[in-house]
Input
Amino acid sequence: MATLTIDGKTITVVEGTSVLDAARKLGISIPTLCHHPKLSPYGGCRMCIVEIKGIARPVTACTTPVSEGMEVSTSTPYLEKLRRTILELILSDHPNDCMVCEKAGDCVLQELAYFYGLRENRFAGERRIYAKRDGNPLIERDMEKCILCDKCVRVCDEVQRVRAIEIAYRGFKSKVCPPYERDLDCEFCGQCIRVCPTGALTGKKWALKGRQKDIKEVDTICPYCGCGCNLTLNIRKNEIVRVTSKEDTLNEGWLCSKGTFGYHFVNSPERLKNPLIRIAPKSSEFGVRSSELKEKLQTQNSKLKTQNSKLFREATWDEALDLAAKRFREIKEKHGHDSIGALASARCTNEENYLFQKFMRAVIGTNNVDHCARY
Amino acid sequence: MAGLAAVFGSGAMTNSIPEIENNDVIFVIGSNTTETHPIIALRMKKALRKGAKLIVADPRKINLAGFADVWLQQKPGTDVVLLNAMMHVLLKNNLIDRVFILIRTEGFESFKDSLERYTPEYAEKITGVPKNDIIKAALLYGNANRPGIYYTMGITQHSHGTENVFAIANLALMTGNLGMESTGVNPLRGQNNVQGSTDMGCLPDQYPGYQKVNLPAIKTKFEKAWGVKLSKDAGLKATEMIAEADKGRLKAMYIMGENPAISDPDINHTVSSLKKLDFLVVQDIFLTDTAELADVVLPAASFAEKEGTFTNTERRVQRVRKALNPPGQAKEDSWIISELSERLGYPMKYNFTEEIFQEVGRLWQTVAGINYRRIEKDGLQWPCPTFDHPGTPYLFKGGFPRRKAAFTVVEYKPSKELPDEEYPLMLSTGRHLFHYHTGTMIRKGDALNSIAPEAYVELNPQDAIHLNLADGQKVRVSSRRGSIEVKAHITERVGKGMVFIPFHYREAAANVLTNTALDPVSKIPELKVCAVKIEPIKTGNYEVRTKKL
Amino acid sequence: MKTEKNDIKIKVCMGPGGIATGGADVIKVFKDDLASANIKAKIGKGCSLHKVGCFGLCARDVLVDVIVGKNKTTYQYVKPDMVPRIVKEHLIENNPVSEWTVGDDYYSFYNKQIKVVLSEFSEVDPEDIDTYTAVGGYEATKKVLTKFTPEKTIAIIKKSGIRGRGGAGFPTGVKWEICRKVESDQKFIICNADEGDPGAFMDRAVIEGNPHSVIEGMIIGAYAIGATKGYVYVRAEYPLAVERLTIAIKQARGKNLLGENILGTKFNFDVRLKLGAGAFVCGEETALIASIEGQRGMPRAKPPFPVHSGLWGKPTVINNVETLANVPYIIRKGADWFSSFGTEKSKGTKVFALTGKVKNTGLIEVPMGILLREIIYDIGGGIEGGKAFKAVQTGGPSGGCIPAELVDINVDYESLAKVGSIVGSGGMVVLDDTDCMVSIAKFFLEFTQAESCGKCVPCRVGTKRLLEILDRITAGKGREGDIELLEDLGNDIKLSSLCGLGQTAPNPILSTIKYFRHEYEAHIKEQKCPAKVCKDLIEYGILEEFCKGCGACLRVCPSKAITGEKKKPHIISVDVCIKCGACFDVCKFKAVKKE
Output
């Protein structure tokens, strides 16, 4: 353990703790852009510089471990002046397009610019211009907005262990990009989007779907594999516009490609909207042969409606449920309880599965109920 | 699951996901974790960063193999030999936990003798894994303090899947690697609420909470709770239902949120069986291939459109919340079931969703301590019998539900269908990172689908040379049950003689090819091994083939 | 009269300067001619033909020493076609070609120098370990391994007072001692040969001239700290250094000076080469470590320092080439001998690459504390072309400019720091009155901006903005307040940058503003470049009264901006002129004016 004072307040923390973490424990906020608690310290943005008694130059709080008796100042006019300059430098190479930026209102850089009241910029000069858009289908990479905080690079390396991106070039031309500046070709987990402090990384499908302030957040659980990741559905106008995840949960805020980008099915126009009752006979017409399926799929979108109308007619709930009830009752009476079977779903809730098996057992009177965990 | 339950008395993951990062040895067998359980894989990678060692046993050079200290590339279907040989090595090196064996297990002596013939040399012959790698892996696992074993369908989807699971259980038992933090045996469940659907009694022989239907006292308890007489006979398993439908003995089916017309083995057979039903109700969010065969299709709400709970692979009951209204007339499954039930003279009235869960708690003590308020944020892992119980991150701390866990003698049985002259290649199926199960969900999501829009077959360069195939060339893959057309993807991910096809693609459904041979206990089909042949498709013949047969 | 042929030595400079001016060809012709003159049989025995390291006075390369008996004659500016005459007249007829030999000024170049690191350059063939051992090489290794404990070795180095020659000047013995005391299963020693300052070639010359001295320094250092593995991180742009190091390592292994049980002791140590890909920042020790590890060469914050957590997280000592090359001599000749050179706080000698506007450019080694005046006037021979000495830039892109009025300061760590510059790795660029100080600052800023790793904001963006301001000043578009903005931003960058590169990058600007503020002001307020360097601020014209109408300027003008009839004054069309200065240089009558 080491005891130190930060802005006159004393705290004792475990050795190896960073000055930044110690300060945050004391409720002292130090601005950061490149720091992430789950990634290795970086010290690139320089916003978290602090003064330590006995050390000539300011040091970054995120990279400096505490030591016994350390005396730290986090906010002197001298430090604030340096921070202001740093921020001014970052903004001098950043598009001033908050008004159309997806990240506006949820952007760390914007917050800091506001906090430091940076309207004019003494250093206005050349700005990096990248005309070429990354052609990958999912992640928008607007590198003009990138502040080189390296969080995306680190999360890809340290957490996801993919190393799809790295900083290339040097000096002012430094740029985060995939090898040889090809289009991003990775696991598309979206971890990089989650840690990006600016609008440099967003989801392509999120564009113009609504800013954070217009969005209702609903916490739920991912519908895909069995990991049970916590999802926060971002809802606007009865539509999922994006999916995020909170950091203090089972999955530590990380998601995979399916969790991050696999939500479009919910708002798909192909969703069933009405009960359907069969009108076509069950001929062999719709057997499953790959060649047939292929043909069917090719014309699926256009044919969907006509196909439905050939096979089924839309019905009211009463019609459909009455028919189902009638036929189940008839078959049960004619062939016995055990002539009816049921398959439950691993994608339905516990409550629904409970009701489902209860229905089969208590109402139909059979134990012919199973789930699909076998394949 | 049946396998683990038979040994330990409970068939779930013994440990929790957060514990993975403190494993010192991770043994992944038959699980392509980075693609099927990406977030669990992240925990594994975190453990590796903290210094853990990794053993991967997989016939394919899966992503995790690149991180592994030892990668064992066993031939598909030879897991038992590999595991037995590892245990043989442990026994020879006296890396077994005698106290644990004495106090908490039974049947060790006869089991011990059965390992005698599984020498690493013998195993090398059968599995193709160099004997030194087997020894290295065994010693890594045997010397570990907190080893965890992780497996999925690569272990279970075999005609001898239950025996594979027994072998894994034996390995953990003989080393005493159970009942401790970050130490255990962990089947990873493939779908978000598989655990929950079995917990809730969607099993033909068990009521909610794995309570046997054939035990009179249990049956009476449920009869009392539900106010009706119940059947004393165990029902049909899913695979058996299809068989009975084919024989005309099963007349009607009610399928909720499931798509056997793609996920079943030998789906041509499944489809023809389902067509023979007098009456089929399918309740789903899309018009799936199965729904197309239905007499009545009921539009259901998606996960984002309802309240309730899911139980994840580590037994954690978590809260699902309604974020959207369902489209059109679509309704929550619970509403649909209740309406149907009422029409059949059995009203199920619940004022709110949690009442259903409370009813489960009254019938199954293990989850009695869980209510929605307690799982508002994080979820709770069962067993959690009382409201002050903190939940159970890892199982068997104090012992096994069936007091003593039994060793099972497991002998090697080859897969039911092995390559021969006509069908010289061994096919395995599985998932792809960007897709999920039968594709009902992802494949509607255009963006993700566009990364991997097409079905493919992975095959080894040596086989490709032998067959004179080029990468990306269209080929026909055939088994005794059918054939599909896919693109060839030539890669060293698969060993020579083996091919792999992801099963998500309905236009080239891998399960047209797969074998219906079942594990006799779990009734899980042998989706991981069957014999196929591959032929190039010549454009000249192409037209003819695409005509309707 | 016949020469005693068994006592002839010919040494051809094969340092960077010698190679660049054709040293290899000179050697070849010597060989051929000696052969045909029948002196062949004796080569390698009595008569030897050496390629040796840098002679120092690169301006006069190729330099060749011809030693007959005890008489040494040095030839300067030797070209291959001069060799036959030297062989004939000097070696056969024993009559040195006096018109090609060096004069007194050559010796004054050496008089004020004291050579330690460079002392055996004229003796040692860098590709032959035996020539190194012949002059006492590897005796220090033997001494240390068999007689000294690691602690004793460190004590000697500490006592010598040697400080790191890479720029920062940290006491070497202290660094070793800290690393010695860290407990670890593995330690490393790294030789930093990633010399990247523009105009600096000290380390290159040392490695190319005497690679074994560096390897020997590493062996001793490794023994002292307890390392068993070493790396030499050397620029790939130094192919000859790489080649000679490779040969030297192989030879050292062959003599059991590297490898297991070195010289029969229990000490194991081996060295590997790691080639740098030309990133200046990789000279920064943490970036260098990242580069060896296969990462992008980017510095990280310190602490932890490499002595605690360096390569692969293990304790690591990183020493500069020159530092390590000093070590064998300190051990051989003693700490007191070493510390007898230099000042109280800066001990020993320092190698500088003296370049710029002095007459004698080249590699020099001087005792710490020597007067700047002595370097420039005595060793350097004063300013070329009779122009006025204006300033000297030391320490490369991290250093600063020292104005002529401070010519009497001592050259050591403390004194240079006091006036706003640094010793640095040893670059020394002499400037005269035709050098524009704003342009000099801009030159270095262009370099640091291009070489910034991009990690931290002040360096990545800040140096870019400094450069932009300098650009507009030199273009005559400077604004009121730009000087203050440069100072303000420069100071902020120094204080807030992550590594040494950024922390020192503004120095060339700040020191030139400090001593030559008026030049900046002239650019901004009067749109004038006093040194007449900034193209946008000058105009070429022809002085009618001097122009003879010879047409020389007209002929060299690439943009056809000059017109005029023969024998009549010519005219430069300002609109067409691209200000290349060709006319100015070609005019024999000083009729072209630059304003």
Remarks:
- Chains C and B do not touch (no CB pair under 8 Å).
- Residues 156 and 335 of chain C are 6 Å apart (CA to CA).
- Chain C has five domains: 5-105, 130-339, 349-432, 437-525, 539-594.
- The longest helix of chain C spans residues 507-525.
